[in-house]
Specification:
With 176 residues, this protein is of the alpha/beta class. Helices cover 34% and strands 29% of the residues. The strands form 2 sheets. Strands 1, 2, 3, 4, 7 and 8 form a 6-stranded mixed beta sheet that branches. Strands 5-6 form a two-stranded antiparallel ribbon. The protein starts with a helix and ends with a helix.
Length: 176
């Protein structure tokens, strides 16, 4: 006789006694102010020169501060990621020691448990700008909570509906 919870507790206790407990990985949501930058991106619909495009809105947010930076690009290629890093770090006037990302294929080529095998491009970004990358657990966007709602916020407040621009440079001047 027993309850489901009692069985769960017993199994947990036995696993701990036999050193079989699951190792939980996590990314702390508390960062020293100004040390960490969280980065995310999402789709956005924009009219460019009277043609409709689905582009990508890249967002950087400083946890603990009400600071966000956003720019739009027609693709989420390495070129877009690189240009975004260049612009955002110039905007924030420096390099943060840690940047937190999801597991985008431009940055991570393989996820194996807790390990991330970064792309050559991702490693080059780290080396060039001298920061350390941290990647969230798969399907755990809450680990970068300061930026997670930033894409929707910027889309709704700065690019509502399907706004019209002459070119991508005009979009980014508007966002700046």
């Amino acid at each position: 006789q027993g309850y489901e919870r009692r069985i769960q507790d017993t199994v947990k206790k036995l696993r701990e006694e036999n050193n079989q407990s699951k190792k939980k990985s996590f990314l702390p949501l508390h960062f020293p102010l100004g040390s960490t930058l969280q980065v995310d991106h999402g789709e956005v619909d924009i009219m460019i020169n009277e043609s409709r495009y689905t582009g990508y809105l890249f967002i950087a947010s400083v946890p603990g501060y009400a600071l966000r930076y956003c720019q739009a690009f027609p693709t989420k290629s390495q070129e877009a990621w690189g240009e975004f890093h260049e612009r955002m770090l110039r905007f924030f006037n420096g390099v943060f020691t840690k940047l937190v990302y999801d597991n985008d294929s431009v940055l991570v080529k393989k996820v194996m448990g807790d390990e991330r095998h970064q792309t050559t491009f991702s490693l080059s970004l780290e080396e060039h700008f001298r920061f350390e990358s941290h990647f969230c657990n798969v399907a755990a966007g809450n680990e970068k909570g300061a930026v997670e709602n930033g894409v929707g916020y910027c889309r709704r407040n700065f690019l509502p509906g399907c706004p019209s621009f002459l070119n991508w440079d005009e979009v980014n001047r508007h966002l700046l």
